[in-house]
Amino acid sequence: xxxxxxxxxxxxxxxxxxxxxxxxxxxxxxxxxxxxxxxxxxxxxxxxxxxxxxxxxxxxxxxxxxxxxxxxxxxxxxxxxxxxxxxxxxxxxxxxxxxxxxxxxxxxxxxxxxxxxxxxxxxxxxxxxxxxxxxxxxxxxxxxxxxxxxxxxxxxxxxxxxxxxxxxxxxxxxxxxxxxxxxxxxxxxxxxxxxxxxxxx
Length: 201
Description:
Radius of gyration: 16 Å
Largest sheet: 6 strands, parallel
Number of domains: 1
Shape: globular
CATH architecture: 3-Layer(aba) Sandwich
Order of helices and strands: EHEHEHEHEHHEH
Number of strands: 6
CATH topology: Rossmann fold
CATH class: Alpha Beta
Helix content: 40-55%
CATH superfamily: NAD(P)-binding Rossmann-like Domain
Distance between the termini: 43 Å
Structural class: alpha/beta
Number of helices: 7
Strand order of the largest sheet: 3-2-1-4-5-6
């Protein structure tokens, strides 16, 4: 198994893509710190699924848009599992709203969850990665960051900013043996996506 002896922190891990990432990492032997803001029961279930692969999984509730909560989450992961070798920034919200229907509060919330959180997370895990001179930061991007789409101003701005952050981290941290990459998985058929894009149904 390629990740035996490694620990990954995965945000937005209670369902959909985050759950799939967690299970894939577990199958490769990685111990896990799993995060979500809500859905604690679902997160516990994902952790239990991962542990069936013979790895350790630590579920942690917390808002990634809160810098203090991120520090606490990383601190718990370090205390229980010893290190964080891989960071997967997957948590995101994707409201589908016209510009004029997007409130300033919604705008700031989207940027906080989709962009600021990656800064908080990277800032918290990078010191340990630098000390070990290895690590990997993976951000889950969006197609809107590459093309722009109607009714996604906040999401597009956040994901485009995330792409810039990843590029900057790759340039800054590469000399320390730390990789930073973005993956853009494309549109997925999930309950949340359907509810956001087709609220009338």
